[in-house]
Amino acid sequence: MLILGIDTSCDDTSAAVVYKDNVLSNIISSQVHVHKDWGGVVPSLAKRKHEELIDHIIELALTRSRKKITDVEAIAITIGPGLAIALEVGIKKAKELALLYNKPIIPINHMEGHVYSALAKNSKGKPDIEYQLPMLAVLVSGGHTEIVLMRNHGEYEILGQTLDDAIGESFDKVGRILNMGYPAGPVLEKIAESGDENTYSLPIPMQHSKDLNLSYSGLKTATMRIINEEIGALNSFGMKFAKSLKALSYLDKQTHNQELEKKNISHIIANISASFQKASIEQVILKVSQALDILRGQGIDIQDMIIAGGVAQNKYLRKKFRRVFSYLRIHYPTSKKLFTDNAAMIAVAGYFNYLNNKILTKLDEINKIDRLPNWKLNEI
């Protein structure tokens, strides 16, 4: 089964070609340079850039795979979750190609794509990935943080999810306050390597809750207070954030400049970054541990765990998971491109959906495909 995958769920324009679960090509055009000055994704700009690039990216994906559009047997397209006006660009193009070349469409949930990113193989069918269902999927990205029980292919139960900010989003926001640019998350992780994670005692959110949900807004607030106590508001965004938290009492404007000169700012920022990173990831570790205990109590034997999404690239997170869950087989995406938003994971998810007969072939079915910006995995 040769599948063309398309993803325009946020700010990356991507197209890929896969044969079954083997990735033949995976083209991603990042829009970081477009949104950098805004400090975050601007939906209208994202849509415009998708419209400019979509044809070229699809053509490039076909060329790299050495296939033609006429060779493609189905088109897998992300229909949600994501930015509504960004999703519509990819959906419109998928419909256009399906009608023009008489191809069926496989609508895909973006988060299901992340699940399958860890099961995707290269063009030669490597690596040979062994796993046993049911298994646990931990999805950690800029827009989502979810702990999911994958009972079977296409059967998901969300055990826990963030109630506010996603883990990647919180990394970016704290990094922005510390003047790390955009996207700030990877920079924060790098700076944290030289810091002492035990310098500041930050709360582990939701550790006493009786469910498996997560939260990052409180941790972000606590980190902001430490920033203001130690070095003050570093930029206009930080100052606005401090005002919104009524945290200006932590800024002693009279002595601030004098005290600042006595401190090694880079050392303080590294320690704050390391402490924040530790608390952020400890929360995920805690909730995953609780989830496994609950499943074990229900007689569900978990042998395999998927960790996917952009934050799954975090070395500190991987080290912690490897140590705490050494008794499990942990599966990460095997290619750097598969961690972030990409069309290869959508196409691979499309293949498994095809095996489950979740494929639209009738004209009226294809015409009815629409954006589902808040589509949950357990609603598939």
Give keywords.
43% helix; 2 domains; 380 residues; alpha/beta; Nucleotidyltransferase, domain 5; 13 helices
Kindly describe this structure.
- With 380 residues, this protein is of the alpha/beta class.
- About 6% of the residues have low confidence.
- Strands 3-2-1-4-5 form a five-stranded mixed sheet, sandwiched between helices.
- Helix 7 runs antiparallel to helix 10.
- It is globular.
- Helices cover 43% and strands 17% of the residues.
- The chain folds into two domains: 171 residues, ATPase, nucleotide binding domain (Nucleotidyltransferase, domain 5, 2-Layer Sandwich); 197 residues, ATPase, nucleotide binding domain (Nucleotidyltransferase, domain 5, 2-Layer Sandwich), CATH 3.30.420.
Structural class: alpha/beta
CATH architecture of the largest domain: 2-Layer Sandwich
Number of domains: 2
List the total number of helices.
13
Largest sheet: 5 strands, mixed
Name the CATH superfamily assignment of the largest domain.
ATPase, nucleotide binding domain
**CATH class membership of the largest domain:** Alpha Beta
Give me the count of strands: 10
Summarize the amount of helix as a percent range.
40-55%
Evaluate the radius of gyration: 22 Å
Shape: globular
What are the segments in which pLDDT stays under 50 over at least 5 consecutive residues? 235-255
Distance between the termini: 22 Å
Strand content: 15-25%
Give the neighbour order of strands across the main sheet.
3-2-1-4-5
Q: In sequence order, what are the helices and strands, one letter per element?
A: EEEHHEHEHEEEHHHHHHEHEHH
The CATH topology of the largest domain, please?
Nucleotidyltransferase, domain 5
Q: Overall mean pLDDT score?
A: 92
